[in-house]
Amino acid sequence: MAEEPTGKAFRDAMRAFVGNCSILTVGDGEEASGLVVTSAISLSAEPPLLLACVNRTASAHPLLVKYGRFGWSSLGAAHQPVAERFSGFGGIKGAARYEGAEWETAVTGARLLKGAPAAFDCTVDEMIDRATHTILVGRVRAIRTTPGAGALIYWNGAYRALSDQESRAAP
């Protein structure tokens, strides 16, 4: 019988998947935090629900429980510095992750990234713990879009920008 794959082997194989890059923003003031997620997907259109997987060791995790609301902003081609800040590059933590970008306060009080291709103001609908992560289900309360913002993806261990012009040039 073959051995089960190690966590490292699994993570390395998952890097072959192209992930959409989004940030979840949560908390207020000095308690503000957030993280990059590449496991973000649509769950339902009626009612509008989103789903992401959040590591329970993430600093934002207890804030999702405490505040019950969050912003979900997809990242555009020009947002790699935002992704790096919310990934904690250089040891950046908490409220410092919001520096260097423009934000708007949405209906619930959550922050959305200005210029994001799509941004969703959400309330926590459900949190389901599985292994090391929580499956976060968010109910969409408001939507903001920015046409022409492109996309930021994560593939093979690196962020990569896609512009709208590249997508139109594809065969």
Description:
This protein is of the alpha+beta class. The protein has a single domain, classed as Electron Transport, Fmn-binding Protein, Chain A (Pnp Oxidase, Chain A). It has helices spanning 7-14, 61-67, 80-86, 164-169; strands at residues 19-20, 22-26, 33-37, 41-45, 48-55, 69-74, 103-105, 111-113, 118-130, 133-145, 151-155, 158-162. The longest helix is centred in the N-terminal third of the chain and has 8 residues, at 7-14. It is globular, with a radius of gyration of 16 Å. The mean pLDDT is 93.
What is the number of helices? 4
Q: Name the overall outline.
A: globular
- What is the string of SSEs from the N terminus onward? HEEEEEHEHEEEEEEH
Distance between the termini: 45 Å
The amount of beta strand, in percent, is 35-45%
Spell out the blueprint of helices and strands.
Layout: H1 7-14, E1 19-20, E2 22-26, E3 33-37, E4 41-45, E5 48-55, H2 61-67, E6 69-74, H3 80-86, E7 103-105, E8 111-113, E9 118-130, E10 133-145, E11 151-155, E12 158-162, H4 164-169
Antiparallel strand pairs: 1-11, 2-3, 2-6, 4-5, 5-10, 6-9, 7-8, 9-10, 11-12
